[in-house]
Amino acid sequence: MGGTEGWxxxxxxxxxxxxxxxxxxxxxxxxxxxxxxRREGEGETRSALKFLPTGTVTRRQLRHLQDMTQREIRxxxxxxxxxxxxxxxxxxxxxxxxxxxxxxCVLVMDLAERSLADLIxxxxxxxxxxxxIAEICEGLAHMHAAGWVHGxxxxxxxxxxxxxxxxxxxxxxxxxxxxxxxxxxPAGSVDHxxxxxxxxxxxxxxxxxxxxADIWALGVTACQLLTGHLPFSAPxxxxxxxxxTEYAAGDRPLALPASLPEAWRSWVSDCLAPNPRxxxxxxxxxxxxxxxxxxxxxxxxxxxxRTAGVTALALLMLAGVSGAGTVSPSxxxxxxxxLRTGSDIxxxxxxxxxxxxxxxxxxxLSPALIxxxxxxxxxxxxxxSDVAKDEYGIARWTPSVLQFYLPPAIRGTILPPPxxxxxxxxxxxxxxxxxxxxxxxxxxxxxxxxxVAFRSSGEVVREAKGxxxxxxxxxxxxxxxxxxxxx
Length: 487
Prior knowledge:
The chain is of the alpha+beta class. Helix content is 34%, strand content 12%. The protein is globular and about 80 Å long. The relative contact order is 0.08.
């Protein structure tokens, strides 16, 4: 077919697969090619046909390709969301007379107008960029809440539909989380892969990857949409990767494009935090993006005390993000691998509990432990108010203590009660990630030691060389609740 020489899969115009007839070529990558598909009759008549080859690759490449195809199909079957491109059906080419196409897998998907990469010009912001960024965050927050990492987020893989909305696409590198992380093959766009990716050892399953990798790619993509430039300036992709690596190592500052709107600088900078653990979650970035895009009204309440430079807008970044964790009704229980299905954990808190319980890999930390602590502390009551003890919310935080375990953008701020679960629950995970290493060597169950430290202090646990007598009943309640929530 004219114009497709060198494509991963060259398909002649008019070729038929299933009920679809191949039309104009749309795009190609290293492993797949996309064409417009048309069919006559009732219903939807246009689609995108993604051809993945079989007969023209080596055996090793074939295994890699099959793995990517299975990843993409598995994700589509697990997740449905308005910000994820829809898979309509899968087909296999049966054409023995055409060995280059025979056996090829074809994914029939929604047809987009273009990708966001088509809109990005050198030094030119994309129109309506704030809204587009918020919509990208919607799709990413849904994926993360359901236990998936996209793995290859970039403008080429964000599609603009006919109505102007965007959808995430190309899930060949998407991976399900296995505990705290998933695994990806050594692939990805150099400009959008975080520096730490290549520092991870390569095992038989690939490189370990966390949701924080998507957040880095989100920051790079947002910078491109807002300025038309990548955040690291250099003439080649290799040079930009070196610049990003030097920044992550602390050898050079982050020099974002001067044209980046001031209101978005902290948003992008937080996504590009050198320490992956310091990067905010997709749900938080979604809410912040909605506010910056003017889609969310800023509440008027203020904190009793604020650190310099923290505004009322920043304080309320965290409110109302729980909706980002809502999962498709078609997914029975995306959190079942971490928390027992059918337990009394309120559904709206399960995503936040999993986020907190997988925030780091310290021994003892788990979503079941977080849930057990919340059950013991408040019976999951988000409105708890114990004024006498100065403890509030679902985790019974004291505001003057909570300030040290807030996200970096507002850390050090004393928030006023009530303390919403979207703030309180992830903060428990941050507390344990900081405190559990300090309890190494103390005899006892690490998770229960961390829970008792949360209720008292790490010093109390260390001095007692375990759970102090006065906290044994508390530790036992946490132990029983944790056991009740383990899958």
